[in-house]
């Protein structure tokens, strides 16, 4: 356990003053007020109206209040804060379940919509509570014995019956990865079980058995990680999967043979708070991440660029950490003197990044800076962790901020990981920068994938035909390229369709910020976006790198579905994203492109002459989305139906300056 106990007064009286002041102010603001109470009817709402967030937010508020009190108790040994810790710990011990509503399997096993206390479920939430109580016991142990004798015995009893015993006796947990599908629940839960084992299990034989099972589980996750370190659901889920894996190995005195995983966050960094996002990950993750952990791990693996990226987030004079990411991370940061002393520099911002396993390419104008345009484009398949149907989608950022975007995901509900996932507009290809072909959008499933993927110099070429559940799409070649000499991004789509229906074929562009549209042209976020058809015999229609060798060619992704898969409430969550089946027509569901009923929150504008461009405005009232993008996103639907079954459209993106 890297955190010293409160008996080490040299460590706990030297904590960062700014952090201590901020924690004290927030803790005193709630001291003496009723504790957040997760209510039974809010738990049951998951089965009534799909809401899981209300219950989970109450749980997280309880975690954060307890974390503040624990840190202040360790620093001050003040009975006021020891009492606050006691109240919070006992409230968790008396909570009917530590599981989050969408995870507890009591409904499937017992037909109940409320927790079944005799059959505890080990999920992400249970692991988090177990680890919090373990940290409390470890840091405050002797002081709790003197202040509230009996509390530590209660903690051990509850962690044992709710987590440690079910972990060892039930070996059918889906997150163990025994079925070959390994996702981020695996290291997230295993790392928390490890913390509880090290802090609370005194019997040597039982401790060794638990560590053996934990190690086996972590090994399954490590084996599934691709060699290039890519995380198919993005950097937000890196924190809740791969990072937990690396930390668990560190606690066990081991390291990974795939150190590239440490580099993943900085390799997908666009600039400032923005990151390349795919699947359920947000483009602007919370700033309150445990950067001190990445800093420590980067030094452990000797990755100077990852270390610099972490250090870039240290703000001298400001708190070293926040209680939001969890009690353990707060305690680690408060006692990490190296992190407190870090002086920030710039993030490395690599010039070129290519992940073969997920077929994600990132190219920027020059290394070390976010000025100008950055292109991120993916191939992949539609059975990735926390999957969105987004094969061939791309992002264009200006000065590090995305303008042509991937929206991310809304607040999690029962629908998110159920059979109707792909009725949620953010999950569908119609709200990614992809085509809809003859009225049909992409389908979910491993078979719906990019083919003939070739990574070139700041370019990616692929065939999107197989991503669509149609047999008349003979080919749809997309070439996305950053031309550094001209500071221009081009995306060229060339298609060949067999004779078939005349339903609309549309190329979608999802745009952040204010948008103005005229014939063949749009302006947004300091960018000018133009589009025009290209004649088949035009030399410009030849894809860049067309004469390059096949060294970087892939027939399909090699490991994109093998990475981690999840976090919880409004901060992250559930494992199996792909519950949908079959093709979806673009005009079937609520995220209608051209015809059909109008969904609330969606406004459609007129089209411009030439190739028709319809403007679709999506009003954002979900804070998970609006906190990133503001009050709306705009989609441009460029109708290329008139170009016929064989055609080419070139999209060009330049800065206005």
TrEMBL record:
Principal subcellular localisation of the protein: other
Domain of life of the source: Bacteria
Compartments, record wording: Cell envelope
Heparinase II/III-like C-terminal domain boundaries: 353-493
Pfam families: Hepar_II_III_C
Region entry Disordered, spans: 538-609
Gene3D superfamilies reported in the protein's UniProt record: 2.70.98.70, Chondroitin AC/alginate lyase
UniProt-listed InterPro entries: Chondroitin_lyas, Hepar_II_III_C
Annotated protein name in UniProt: Heparinase
Biased composition (Low complexity): 543-570
